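Regression report. Comparing outputs from two consecutive submissions.

Submission 1:
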Amino acid sequence: MPLSLNRRAVLRAGAAVATAPYFGVHARADDGIWFTRTVGPFVEVETTGGRVRGGHSRGALAFKGIPYAGPVSGPNRFKAPPKVSPWTGVRDATLLGPPALQGPGTTYGEHEPAYSEDCLVLNVWTPAVNDGAKRPVMVYCHGGGFTTGSGGQRIQDGARLAATYDVVVVATNHRLGLLGYLYLGDLGGADYATSGNQGILDIIAALGWVKDNIATFGGDPGNVMVFGESGGSAKTCAIMAMPASQGLYHKAGLQSGHLLRGLPREVATETTRRVLAALDIAPKDFTRLHDVPADKLLALQLAAEKGQGPLTVPTPEWQAGHPPPRPSLAALRAAKPGGWGPVVDGTILPHDPFDPAAPAIAASIPLLIGTMRDEATFFERDHPAFFHMDATGLDAHMRRALGDDAQRVLATYRRTRPDATPVEQGIAIETAISMGNGAVAIADRKAAQAAPVYRYRNDFPSNIAIKGTDWTLRAGHATDISVTFLNTEMPDLQGDGPGLVEASNAVSGYFTSFARSGVPTAAGQPAWPRYDIKDRAVMLLNSQCQMALDPDGQERAMWQAMGV
């Protein structure tokens, strides 16, 4: 039975890194409708890198593919991004720029160019330019774990949000996977001190570009919100813990993703040693990595994502000191070589982002954080057998993943959800492991600081059918992206069920008001109190939202008692 908790939950149950294939949104942008086309009349503005020409799109102005840093190929590979290379003349900014190098079919922008190692571009959507306004700025980190995706995905196009709520929206492309997170610090010394975190440093460079340029685009560089969904949320966690980001953003939003812990140096270095062994490069000759074709590096990464290839083979030194663990919750959370994500190097990322506490340098940053009610339907959607499990099947599935911990978890969920089917109980358990527990931990730890925390659970159900089952995605992972961005007319995971427009108005209203003032409000919806560990107020987002105190509290208490 091809059930997937072992593969998917291992990669995000509070572990250091979430990898790509399980964060992708499989909705295509090739259905013949160019929703996000930029048209005339065209508009020119001056940036610190040179002059760009954008145009009109869905009620706003759009400027796409603007370079915010210089080339990161060749001698700049694995290093912090260099300053942008200025250009002369007027650069066209009506089309998307290149996404980061990644596997085929994993980005969803309209008329998006081919993947490229040199991918450091961003998009801006704004109601107006050069008007002296100080609009809140919403900088979005795309999903796709740390290995796929782009800032051009059409359902996260920022034009409608900018036009409706008078905000400025920015989305970036940044390095991913091996090229974004290979750690050479323990092999290469000071010249590679920023390696292991170059993908996050790219986003921070984009925040620097925002600080220097966004006033031209009608935005307020003193009121910037960084937010993201799924892998983008995990990237935001890393940003919050990095000293280089201080002063460049003022609010944060985490949607269905977390990064409690980064990759330990020893784990990241083991991955690097496997890369070198695969390429027959001695560790002392690691600089030869600069000469390896990028596609060859990508091939190693893609094989590992399928559980194949040399990155799955431990070095003798690693194997001697790390015997295979028995299945357990602790084993699910443990960082493992062969994947990609921010590295706790002691300098660029000084410590784990949210373990054992929220980063002190983010104490003044208000936080909006939440998850989907049924996250796990998305992760299991390609495994119809999961949706036909009986109680015996669920027992076996959980024992394979959790070992001896399964008994306590199953007993709790059967007590708290006596009327739920085994499949519904399984979805609830996997949702907690994959996303829910991490969100609770971050909210609790951030609430100990001065700035407010606002927590939500998104309950709006998608009516998209899961093939081979009688299930829909319900409130599954990634069904909220188009809802947040007011892009529900674009066919995607959100479906077209009743209340969709109302839910989108509520969610987008709460997010944009939070970006503006630090307090989420939405027309016709309840007031949203700040979160604390006494009352645990959670907004249940829907077409008509409602407040709840500590929803699923008995389950939360069980997970926390188990050290999750």
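Submission 2:
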Amino acid sequence: MIPLTLAEVTAATGGRLEAGADPAALVRAVTVDSRLVAPGTLFVAIVGERVDGHDHAAEAIAAGAPAVLATRAVTVPSVRVDDPLAALAALAALVRDRSPAAVVAVTGSAGKTTTKDLLADLLGEIGPTIWPPGSFNNEIGLPLTLLRTEPDTAFVVLEMGARGLGHIAALCAIARPSVGVVLNVGSAHVGEYADGRAGIARAKGELAERATDTVILNADDPLVAAMATRVRRTAQVITFTQAAGVGGQPPAALVTEVGARQVRVDAAGRASFVLVAGGERHPVTLGLVGAHQVANALAAAAVALRLGLPAARVAATLTAARPRSRWRMEVSRTGAGVTIVNDAYNANPESMRAALHTLIGLRGSGRAFAVLGGMGELGTAADEAHDDLGRLTVDLGIDRLVAVGAAARRVHAAAETALATSGVSGGDGAVSGGDGAVDGGGRSSTWVADADAAVAAVVARARAGDVVLVKASRSYGLERVAQDLTAAFGPAQDGAAGSGSAAGSGSAAGSDRGTGQNSGVGRGAGTRVGAEIEGI
């Protein structure tokens, strides 16, 4: 972090020093997690759903904090403010003011975290780069990431999430991004917008309006491509595409500059393609699982090319990149020969579709199990979306659907109806604690009440060669299903977790220096729960 004195902190936040806080004391880091306090760390006391950071003020000072940023009186040195989130934003904006680093912001309904992780690899080839662990993409996580900026930082990569109009605009006011990337407009959080995806497009487009130097747009998504008309005159538009040519008659400002040709997906679910940029062509083989990762790689490539990385090095770095963030197409090969795909970090209709297509590609000669929970924040579209998901599992030929929890009942019901209509369902074995039939003889669907029942259903039926996808919106917590299944089937004999596993999942990765800011915050730490800090 660019060091600040407590006097500077007080001036930036409009606060006041209390309980003997030394105005000359230096702040060298900021955290909302009292467990991460080290000498020189300012502890921001936030009142969360389960814990109150003020209760941890004394232990923060004992660990070396020069002060606590607090909203009420505490008995230790503090900076008293009215609003801790506004104060956090003000400190981040101050550090942004003092840094010459290029700030790259990424938004989209899906793919933000993977693209951010790829950018960390690519921009790290050029200079010191800061990026967030996990999905620190909201009014807490984004300022915490900016506050890790060092005097020599060349690039800061940020995620920006939105649950309504004005959210991204507010984050841009703090970060002032020079490069903005809009990946796609899907149905994530559609229930928060009165006019559905059109509202989501307006919200995501706030980044296109505010990036000062360059805007990277997905030419294959019409709602994103249309954002070219919203870009400020002084900014350059760069697009990326997997098409041989952009269909229709796009605005004149749209000139596709980065493309993927000859896209192929191997038996392990990894995509390869030829990167086309600036008249050059270079082969890329991704270490990430899923054909949908090609678009994320192109977006990251467009940024890196714009910021000076040669196309050949872009291709080589993309090929060498491996997953950094947990629970996103995280593949584990087990000792029993069953492959577990943990994609349980989040879900919406588009990401569910992509994950199911990937599952089919991974199935090989085995069977495809889909353990699916509900998709949150879809509003009035929720019933139809869950019905469509159930039918999609049948259309794609998923062998075993296990729908988990009340929100997924409709997924099971729609799949069961579609299976009955198609005449391909089979089996007569009932699953304990659930509805429907699952048997080794045919395709089928079952509903179970909870994670434990889901684990039991899969363990009872899966065999060597089968592939199991686990996916749901973050709030349903199905990552535990994937973890329990991996444990139940045992570690791979060679000890390898598989090429799609997240490296160091749950670690504090996120900077070429290390972050000291673990994404798993919230457990008795004087902060809000981790999902609120990370965003989804």
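Expected: both submissions complete independently.
Actual: both completed, but the second showed a warning that disappeared on reload.
Relevant detail on submission 2: Residues 240 and 258 are 5 Å apart (CA to CA).
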